[in-house]
């Protein structure tokens, strides 16, 4: 229980000269108030005494924390009307270690963590910073898994499947988005309606993945200044600085960025995986058919998607496994725990000597 155990315990510092009775210990935080209360009840506090106290209030009080500190016995009294300041303890004792733990996790920010803990995000506003003499806005990026698929995969290259019967290609958006393109026997051609051979689907999906990975490893760099727009594969000795359209390191203040970043290739692989995820299609169909849903999927369409998902579970699972083979090699989905805890003072465990 929160009130049964003292939330803060402080040991009074020892006097520098015990023989001098006129010198008193220096009390910090809520110790001064508690020392006076303890002195009235049990005499003056002595060196080495431990005084427990609780910061009370509702988080909106303008009084400093030492003036809102009371002993646990006073807080536990029914007629006292005192309650621990939950916001103060979250902000001072919980938020700092959480912020340090999540500092190296991509997609998190101070404002986002403060909002998740129920704190006032205005106090943790770091959206303005000074960088190279110019103030720039820092974007607060939400977690990738919390972004809707139509927004997260908006820039991804669509999967085009070629029919071996009519020799035409058509874009496949998945079971939920295109239930008419799926039959109990597999994926259908959008032009002639013939069933595309599963082996052909696997080969075309793997070819699409290799095209995207080859594009990533080409390493094209582009300038983020719209007035320059230079595109090259050569990194200059100035690092990320753009050399300008004439290559003289002037007339441009932009920075070079990868045209196809790590985030882009990772989202591309996740997009290919989502096309063949029958469980995800089932969940979307159930949620869309629920009362009050914005998509308002009919019960007939819902049952059709659920039935097609079960018919193609093994077939789609084979294609999904091909994509996951490449996705497992992508290091973006893994968190480097050694780097994460390095700033906290933890080092790698040394391997035992052979």
Automatic annotation (TrEMBL):
- Mind listing the UniProt keywords for this protein, alphabetically? DNA-directed DNA polymerase, Mitochondrion, Nucleotidyltransferase, Transferase
Which cellular component terms (GO) are annotated to the entry? alpha DNA polymerase:primase complex; mitochondrion
Compositionally biased tracts (Low complexity): 1-19
Q: Where is the Zinc finger DNA-directed DNA polymerase family B alpha domain?
A: 145-341
List localization entries.
Answer: Mitochondrion
Under which EC number(s) is this enzyme classified? 2.7.7.7
The GO biological-process annotations, alphabetized, read as:
lagging strand elongation; leading strand elongation; mitotic DNA replication initiation
Kindly give the Pfam families that the UniProt entry links to this protein: zf-DNA_Pol
Among the GO molecular function terms of this UniProt record, one is: DNA replication origin binding
Q: What is its main location?
A: mitochondrion
Q: What class of enzyme is it?
A: transferase
Residues annotated as region Disordered? Answer: 1-26
What is the protein's given name? DNA-directed DNA polymerase
Organism, by scientific name, is: Verticillium longisporum (Verticillium dahliae var. longisporum)
């Amino acid at each position: 229980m929160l009130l049964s155990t003292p939330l803060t315990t402080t040991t009074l510092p020892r006097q520098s000269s015990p023989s001098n009775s006129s010198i008193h210990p220096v009390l910090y935080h809520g110790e001064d108030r508690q020392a006076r209360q303890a002195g009235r009840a049990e005499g003056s506090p002595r060196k080495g005494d431990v005084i427990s106290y609780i910061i009370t209030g509702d988080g909106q009080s303008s009084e400093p924390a030492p003036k809102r500190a009371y002993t646990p016995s006073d807080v536990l009294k029914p007629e006292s009307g005192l309650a621990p300041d939950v916001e103060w303890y979250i902000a001072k004792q919980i938020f700092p270690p959480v912020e340090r733990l999540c500092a190296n996790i991509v997609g998190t920010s101070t404002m986002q963590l403060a909002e998740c803990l129920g704190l006032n995000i205005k106090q943790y506003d770091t959206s303005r910073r000074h960088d190279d003499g110019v103030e720039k806005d820092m974007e607060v990026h939400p977690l990738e898994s919390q972004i809707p698929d139509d927004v997260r995969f908006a820039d991804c290259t669509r999967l085009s499947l070629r029919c071996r019967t009519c020799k035409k290609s058509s874009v496949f958006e998945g079971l939920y988005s295109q239930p008419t393109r799926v039959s109990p026997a597999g994926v259908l051609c959008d032009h002639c309606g013939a069933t595309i051979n599963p082996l052909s689907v696997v080969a075309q999906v793997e070819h699409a993945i290799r095209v995207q990975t080859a594009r990533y490893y080409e390493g094209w760099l582009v300038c983020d200044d719209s007035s320059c727009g230079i595109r090259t594969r050569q990194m200059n000795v100035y690092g990320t600085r753009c050399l300008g359209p004439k290559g003289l390191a002037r007339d441009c203040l932009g920075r070079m960025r990868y045209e196809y970043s790590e985030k882009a290739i990772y989202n591309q692989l996740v997009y290919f995986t989502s096309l063949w995820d029958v469980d995800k299609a089932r969940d979307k169909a159930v949620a869309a058919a629920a009362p009050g849903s914005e998509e308002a999927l009919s019960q007939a369409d819902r049952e059709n998607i659920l039935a097609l998902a079960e018919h193609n579970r093994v077939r789609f699972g084979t294609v999904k496994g091909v994509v996951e083979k490449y996705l497992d090699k992508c290091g973006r989905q893994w968190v480097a725990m050694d780097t994460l805890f390095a700033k906290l003072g933890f080092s790698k465990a040394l391997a035992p000597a052979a």
